[in-house]
Amino acid sequence: MRIAIVYTSVTGNTKELAALVHERFTLRSVDVEIFPIKQFPLNSISEYDGIAIGTYTWGNGSIPREMKNLFSKIEEFGTKRLSTAVFGTGDSFFPYFCGAVDAFRDMLYVRTNLAVTMKVEQRPQFKDVAKCSRFVECLLDQIRKELEVVSR
Ligand SMILES: Cc1cc2nc3c(=O)[nH]c(=O)nc-3n(C[C@H](O)[C@H](O)[C@H](O)COP(=O)(O)O)c2cc1C
């Protein structure tokens, strides 16, 4: 099972959330690769069974510029064999809370096998740890189901 977390972060909130998600995988003894978007080779998407995408939201509920190539790549080459999940941080002061998570969700739902989404208000708090555990469980369940189907 090969899984990647790919995230972007400017002020550190989404980076912290990505680290929490990564830690939850590690506690389940699942080895997961973690990449800031700038270090993720876009051509390697097809090598993964699961990808968890982490993003903050910018502008008027928009996807950050540095995430647009990843978005387009999956939109064009996504497959239902790829299990996905998306998480993000945002600020509910803005009219469109975590809009980038919703934009990824809508595309991933159509182009991939979307397992779960998660939104966190600004910096992750202690209560968000349990959300991260559930998030990881959902993605793992979906990947396992998909691998079972393939091996049949
Ligand atoms: C100019 C600007 C626009 C933003 N627009 C939104 C928005 O539309 N929706 C939202 O939920 N958060 C918005 N945010 C809040 C950030 O997404 C939030 O602070 C996030 O946690 C930052 O993540 P990071 O620390 O990983 O960079 C905006 C922040 C700034 C500075």
UniProtKB/TrEMBL annotation:
Gene3D superfamilies: 3.40.50.360. Coiled coil: none annotated. This is Flavodoxin-1. The lineage of its organism: Bacteria, Bacillati, Bacillota, Bacilli, Bacillales. Low-potential electron donor to a number of redox enzymes. GO terms for molecular function: FMN binding; oxidoreductase activity, acting on NAD(P)H. Belongs to the flavodoxin family. Its cofactor is FMN.
